Amino acid sequence: MMASLILNIVVILFLPFIFIGVINKTKAFWAGRKGASIIQPLYDFVRLVKKGQVISKTTSFIFPIAPTITLASLLFAGLLTPIVHHRAVFGFEGDFILFAYILALGKFFSIVGAMDTGSSFEGMGASREAGFSTLVEPAFFIIMASLVAITGNYSFESVSLMLHKTADLGYLIIVLSGITIFIMILVEGCRVPVDDPNTHLELTMIHEVMVLDNSGIDLAFISYGAGLRMVILSSLIANMISSSVFVYVVVLFILATLIGTIESSFARLRMTHVFEFVFVLCSISLIVLSLTMLFLYGDMGSL
Amino acid sequence: MIHYYLGSLIILAGGLFSLFLPEKNRAWFATLSMGVGAVLLLIPSVNVLMVGNSLADRICFPAPIGEVRLLIDPLAAFFVVVISVMSFLCLLYSIGYLKSYREQKKSTASHLFFLNTLIFSMVLLVTVQNALFFLIVWEIMSLSSFFLVIFESEKKEVMSAGVHYFIIMHVSVLFIMAGFILLANKTGSFDLSTFKTVLETNKDLSGLVFMLFFIGFGIKAGFVPFHIWLPQAHPAAPSHVSAIMSGVMIKMGIYGILRTILFIGVPSLMISYFVLVISIISALFGVLYAVAQYDIKKLLAYSSIENIGIIGIGIGVGMLGLAYHNDLVTVLGFAGAILHILNHSIFKELLFFGAGAVYYRTHTRNMEKLGGLIKIMPYTAFFFLIGSIAISGLPPLNGFISELLIYLGMLHSFEFHQPVALITLALGAGSLALVGSLALFCFTKVFSIVFLGLPRDEKIATMNKGDVPVEMIIPMLILVLFSAAIGLFPQYALYFLRNAVQSFTGHQQIVLVSGKYMDIFRNISLCCLGFVLLIALIYVIKSILIRNKNVYKYKTWACGYDAVNNRMQYTASSYAGPFLSFLTPFFIKKFNIRKPKETFPKEAKFEMRIYDIIEFYLVDPIVKTNKKFLALFNWIQSGSTQQYILYGLIFLIIGLLVAMRMG
Questions:
Q1: Based on the domain organization, do B516 and B371 belong to the same domain?
Q2: pLDDT for B237-296, tens place per residue?
Q3: Same domain? B392 vs B291
Q4: Residue B655 belongs to domain spanning
Q5: Residues B624 and B480 occupy one common structural domain
Q6: Are A141 and B372 within 8 A, CB to CB?
Q7: Burial of A6: CB neighbours in 10 Å, binned 0-12, 13-18, 19+
Q8: Peptide linkage before A138 cis (omega within 30 of 0)
Q9: Could you report the predicted ipTM of this complex, rounded to two decimals?
Q10: Does A134 touch chain B (CB under 8 A)?
């Protein structure tokens, strides 16, 4: 019990670096390079923390505090996420609502922090980030509502625990929910085909352009946060599949390589198509909801 | 009861006496009387809320009204608390806000009188148990608020918005009247308690009456498609009036709906789903249009429609709980709705006060001209930020708690095991999430465009530093504290509201504060506190790490471009632009563009207006045909007094003849 909680915290603190490291290694592999070591993101983090900062004269107290609050929101969301053995550090009825809203608070501050610089580039990124999240959140809630309806449980932990006891259609629902959350990783974690984490200076950027003015420790927080976000969402997928630590590690490894592979084999979508891509999330969530209806009431005939 | 009478009369008297005081003391006097009145009103109402009993009294009026019962039950007591506290803050704020009008030598006497009358009428409205008297008080409320809206009646758009408001309020009262007449016909009495017995037994009648009341009260509350008065009246009214109207007065419509539900007892499924769906539409519609606005007060008005929608979703969930006989869902739904009433009045007043402070200093409501105000007025900026977070429903502030209650109600309604309930409420949860994220979109836009970056207008760029007067700061500070208190300690807020919520389940067994549900909110409270601590911890770690590092101040990085100016910043329209273009079918946009044509371009112009789609397609055509029809009778109004006297005479003769025939 205690051990798994400590393990959770260790995972939250260190896995994001390795996760990004694996993605980069995969990309290097497809490009035919040797690539940097898997813990290179950790070195980058330390290097950035050691640096000084350049802060824009336009900014107010919002700008320096925004990355801190965003990081805190992600860490706290990590504490609410079931990671190993379906256990979250904090788990109670309705915890996934707090989870979603605390992540939204982080988003609020990353947007406001970007707007604080008065830069039109960052305004552009902020506007897009805010726009896409309007499509992600409803999908997440419809999926969670479906899972709650199937399992009759109201917290992350018990939902994922009960999910394994389902049969037939239940597996399909798990797969589709997994796909939805995977797309959420691509959108929220700013990966290809929504966003490209490697290029900063293109007008088609979303998340990367929001952090143009951040430097030093703030930038370290932001890049660690991006990794953490992916780890949290991946943990949700892993917990839908199984509760064993081994499966968890394997699933996260597969997801990281999958993200790396997608990034090596696809180009980023044109901005006008990104909305359509994100909209897929909502469509899948509606399919999940219809399957849930079938699962629960399919044999009733009263439909 | 004596406290109640004394309190409400002191409020009324304060307004009346302020008429005779010298100009500069008026607002102080009105506020003082409101403060005393609020304390007196709080004594009985807080007592009723905590204990759960009701206070009742009766007054006898001359013939047509007859005996009027007054009743402070937990629901009424809750509204009395909201009205008195929020109105007091409003008056406190008005002391500072009216200063600029006093400098223009504009008399505030009648304004303060009507403000206190409005508060008095609202306090009375929630306790009256007599239909006829209810309508009279309702009318006093509408009229006094009309006079408050047209405070700056010398401006043409203010007057037109005021008249608009006046007319729509009377359409609303028509429906309420129709409902009362139907009921009074059945029972032969105007007392509301007799209505209850009729409504509980006669299901067909109760459906019809509920619809009449829902439309009547819904117009006041601002449910879509009856919302069109809100975006017109709020920008026209002074900010403290917008605050009291949006924070308190539109809740009187919600009060009416809640009271009707109490009378009906168990609503039919049809009606419950109807309320839920209309509310979801209102919430989505309100927030979508809020995103599109560039007038800060109009934006807040649309956001009020959104929040009324959220309250309505809570009510709808609660009604479904009643209809399916599930106490837990009933309690969660109504608790969410009632807490959101309180929450919305807190953060909406806060935001209107903030918008008023911006207007007070800059004299503009157009966001495209503002920017960088965080450096000029840091306190207001901070309070507005808190208000924006709260209204987006984010933890650790109060907006999150009421939305959480509604979500939990929705999720528990899957226990009905009804396919319809599952699909409606799962989609409802998705819609509420969509509303939440759109609110985030909307309020990051307002806050960042108005307060962050650099001023987009030269006048504001050269403005002196300095925040608004302290009388305007204090009410905002108090509201921020309220918001944080409810957000961080929701279990006490729910404990406070338990009796008001419990009156909907129809029996005394208290679900809300029993073990399990309190535990959830204790957990939420712990999490929110923990989250705040975590922020502090990371902040401390960061400060230690950068203690000896160099921090340079430099220009914002513009990707190598060096001649950046303030006008190049992202504006409110450009922030919302890409998203709105994605939703083009929901808006009517009219452009007025003049592109630069000459070789050496001289002038260029770009103007975009966004029209309310319901106003454009639903209301305007009705008004137009109505106008055409009424124009046929233009000849009656000749303008000559003699002719009018003749009309009167003819009418009298006809009246006499009819009376003679009947006799």
A1: yes
A2: 999 999 999 999 999 999 999 999 998 888 899 999 999 999 999 999 999 999 999 899
A3: yes
A4: 633-663
A5: no
A6: no
A7: exposed
A8: no
A9: 0.95
A10: yes
